[in-house]
TrEMBL record:
This is Argininosuccinate lyase. NCBIfam families: argH (TIGR00838). It comes from the Bacteria. It comes from Oceanobacillus polygoni. InterPro entries: Arg_succ_lyase_C, Argininosuccinate_lyase, Fumarase/histidase_N, Fumarate_lyase_CS, Fumarate_lyase_fam, Fumarate_lyase_N, L-Aspartase-like. GO terms for cellular component: cytosol. Its EC number is 4.3.2.1.
Length: 462
């Protein structure tokens, strides 16, 4: 007999049971569901809605059910549809009919919203921790490469030299924004919907704040209709996760490029790469590729959830059961990627020599020649044109700027003097950009300080 079987004259068609059941995936909520029920029953007792002895019996029973589920000893069945009714069934098996008092003043609609919030609160905490680890790995590479000059790109064409440390720090600031967004989202996740009942509240003299306090929530959802139909916090998580996945994917793309023979800027550690079953020489950046590839499913879950919610009338609709798999998969996908990322970055070998070679054999110091002429009083547009001619002549003669003699430089502009050879060196070019946020060593050191300060701040507030 189903928990809601009273008004039915026939058993449910088995296909309906199979189709509507969520137990195969929402069993992941078991511990949160029981945690919520323990708080609820403590409140029922405190408010004298059920006798204290019954409440104690229920609480004891719930602890046993929890242990059994954790040990894999409890039988969870499709017939009982979801985790909420399975737990209730198991509880009744354990303590008898008194277990049926647990659901007083509560609906699965506020219960499931509660479970989702409890799950997500933990998941967000885990992701924040993992992002800190990734940032630490990036910062350690940045610190080790404060003198490593590499080509900086626009349009994937060599543009101006930058420090490898500067490049690493760019990702640190992306992940910091991700952490900020996640931390901010907790304000909206961490509110208790319990007490909203099915949609309208309940006739029992419950104490919503009691439950919220017990579960460590910052407050209660203000409107019962909103409390049971709101999944904005899930969308927000999926959206924040999509940005994280996108940031990871961009870095992965660079790792894949940099570890190719064409770039040869880094070598990923053997323990974070894989081989080919056919080509014995291969060492593939599979992890980076797979993290890049899994971005698709994370974006997909965001679009899926937004689409599921679009057009749903208030309040709860069964459509909303579709909120779970995408959320679980998103968290697990991110967790897997982030766990690998920190050590993969940490152990990556940076080929400083090759990067330096790349900035020497190119024209990424051309802007500095133009800026030099501006410093001597030439309008920038004019100096841009002069340097364009110098570069063209160099290309035609198979030379780079630093291969020219002073005479050759002066044939383009009499303003050029002997100091030009130092001005055009990659190190000088980099360190000339000591504007705030720039690529000069000093500026990058400031960025590292700033990032560490923000990280500390976020860690303290957890
Ligand atoms: N399994 C359901 C879900 O995940 C729980 C809430 C069901 N409520 C209901 N009235 N059918 O959404």
């Amino acid at each position: 007999m189903k928990l809601w079987g009273g008004r039915f004259t026939k058993p449910t068609n088995q296909l309906v049971d199979e189709y509507t059941a969520s137990i195969s995936f929402d069993k992941k909520l078991a511990t949160y569901d029981i945690e919520g029920s323990l708080a609820h029953v403590a409140m029922l007792k405190a408010c004298k809605i059920i006798p204290a002895a019954d409440a104690d019996k229920i609480a004891e029973g719930l602890q046993i059910v929890l242990k059994k589920i954790e040990a894999g000893e409890a039988e969870l069945s499709e017939e009982h549809e979801d985790i909420h009714m399975n737990v209730e069934k198991l509880l009744i098996e354990e303590v008898g009919a008194v277990g049926g008092k647990l659901h007083t003043g509560r609906s699965r609609n506020d219960q499931v919203a509660l479970d989702m919030r409890l799950y997500l609160r933990d998941a967000i905490g885990t992701v924040i921790q993992q992002l800190i680890d990734v940032e630490k790995a990036l910062i350690s590479q940045a610190k080790a490469n404060l003198d490593t000059v590499m080509p900086g790109y626009t349009h994937l064409q060599r543009a101006q030299p930058v420090l490898f440390a500067h490049h690493m720090m760019a990702y640190v600031f992306m992940f910091q924004r991700d952490m900020e967004r996640l931390t901010d989202s907790l304000k909206r996740v961490n509110k208790s919907p319990l007490g909203a009942g099915a949609l309208a509240g309940t006739t029992f003299p419950i104490d919503r704040q009691f439950v919220a306090d017990k579960l460590g929530f910052d407050g209660i959802c203000e409107n019962s209709l909103d409390a049971v139909s709101d999944r904005d916090f899930v969308v927000e998580f999926l959206s924040n996760a999509s940005l994280i996945a996108m940031h990871l994917s961009r870095l992965c793309e660079e790792l894949v490029q940099w570890s190719s023979a064409e770039f040869n800027f880094i070598e990923l550690d053997d323990s974070f790469t894989t081989g080919s079953s056919m080509m014995p020489q291969k060492k593939n950046p599979d992890v980076a590729e797979l993290v890049r590839g899994k971005t698709g499913r994370v974006y997909g879950h965001l679009m899926g959830m937004l689409t599921t919610l679009k057009g749903l009338p208030l309040a709860y609709n069964k459509d909303m059961q579709e909120d779970k798999e995408g959320m679980f998969d998103t968290f697990e996908t991110l967790k897997g990627a982030l766990a690998l990322f920190a050590p993969m970055i940490e152990t990556m070998q940076v080929k400083q020599e090759n990067m330096y070679q790349a900035v020497t054999n190119d024209f990424s110091n051309a802007t500095d020649l133009a800026d030099y002429l501006v410093g001597k009083g030439m309008p920038f547009r004019e100096s841009h044109a002069v340097v364009g001619q110098v570069v063209l002549a160099c290309i035609n003669n198979g030379k780079y700027l630093l291969d020219l003699t002073l005479d050759e430089f002066q044939s383009y502009s009499a303003l050029i003097e002997g100091d030009i050879f130092d001005v055009l060196k990659p190190e000088t070019v980099v360190n000339a950009r000591d504007v705030a946020g720039g690529t000069a060593r000093k500026s990058v050191e400031v960025q590292i300080e700033q990032a560490l300060a923000v990280m500390e701040e976020l860690t303290l507030h957890e």
